[in-house]
Predict the 3D structure of the following.
Amino acid sequence: MEAQVAEESKAKRRAALTRESILEAALRLCSPEGGGQLSFSRLGKELGADPTAVYRHFRDKDELILALTDLTIQEGVQLARAALPDGPSDDWRAWLTVTARSVRNAYLARPAVAVLAAARTTASPAETSSVEELISVLHRAGLPVIEAAECYRQLLDLTLAMTQYTAAFCSLDPATQAKDDAAWAVKYGMLQERDFPLLHASAARLTELFRNDEEVFELILATFLDGIAVRIERARGVRESAD
Amino acid sequence: MEAQVAEESKAKRRAALTRESILEAALRLCSPEGGGQLSFSRLGKELGADPTAVYRHFRDKDELILALTDLTIQEGVQLARAALPDGPSDDWRAWLTVTARSVRNAYLARPAVAVLAAARTTASPAETSSVEELISVLHRAGLPVIEAAECYRQLLDLTLAMTQYTAAFCSLDPATQAKDDAAWAVKYGMLQERDFPLLHASAARLTELFRNDEEVFELILATFLDGIAVRIERARGVRESAD
DNA sequence: GGCCCGTGTCAATGCCATTGACATCGCCAT
DNA sequence: ATGGCGATGTCAATGGCATTGACACGGGCC
């Protein structure tokens, strides 16, 4: 009898539950293909185990989510590393662009993590050296250390906030998404030229942007980096005049 | 008997439920003082009525939330109007700054709305003329209409995303907030100068920024607007060379 | 061999949104 | 006036969710 039960268990789940296997399953559920919804019951089903078994490995859902964001950040860092040169670089703009996109893509691969993580942060050591490098790139470009650090924080908060914003929309059920999209299209279509000439003239472009969070993100990133360029020039000016 | 029941009802709630009275109560609950949590049971208690009575006025929670965001946007527009001159202005930077801050403050007065609204949009007519004006200001500054519209969208998405980011953190229970804060302080305190010289040098500033979302927002906004300035200069350059 | 701890199961609790069956009340048409 | 109908409010129930405590098993350590 026990043997049979053991057999069944084996059939249902590959091995005993571990932190790793649970995190894997959770990531699967958080991905768009996995349904993008994380709950203990779903997680239990995915693992072929009782939902509450997860509590033996994570104190509560918050701890689970923190671990998931940690993994996601790690993947972001890894993506960035793969796309960036090893040594220091003078192309600060490319560096920041790649970093922002990597973090964003890591989160967008599992929108539910982004949504659940909300504004939580893990202070994980995974990113520390990446941050140091990023600040170093900005410093080499001409920013004082403190201002370089400020710019790092700006870039990261900007990226995280924009990414959660997109992820939240992705996590809505398709019907709601469609309704929202439609609302905008209708609204811009109805604007009278005599009342709102400028909106009327740009209606097509605006509805296009509403369907396309990626393009909006790229635009914002580009504008933001133009702003960073201004800061760098300013800092260089100050330094030269001090010489 | 009926008279007595009527008396009791009157004592509990001021008048019959209306869309307006429900929205007021909901806004009260969404504010930080009101607990910052919106649920039908809380709403029922606040109204002195059965929680499910609300369903007679709103189809479901989503419709309620959409109405709340609509009100919030209206207040944002109103705040902006109060702080902006009536006629057209040449100070595009001040205009955009005031607009962004107004929207942000309207949402932060009721963080729960920001969190629940997620990336939902209402396409309400309340903001239309404000948007037209904003685009007009950018157009007068020298941007082609389409690009001015793009900049409007960038500013709004940036502001909304950053605001939800902050609101999400505000809506966490204080214990969790404290834990997150502490995590960062500890992390930056532990960094060795020899391993991470730049982070070590800017640790104080970075921990300061973590406690202060408003300052980060202002920094990002300033950088972003510097980027817009670049766009405007570029556009002016093109126009002049075309003359 | 006995004991304990790590792990998994099960049943129960309490919050949540939502629904359907009823009650009530005022208004309109007969 | 009255009969009924629609708008509004109440109540009980459902199903999903996170979380907890009591119990069961099994392997390693004494």
Observations:
- Residues 213-242 of chain B form the longest helix (30 residues).
- The CA atoms of residues 11 and 48 of chain B lie 9 Å apart.
- Residues 16-17, 49-50, 52-53, 56-57 of chain B lie near DNA strand D (CB under 10 Å from a C1').
- Chain B is about 75% helix and 0% strand.
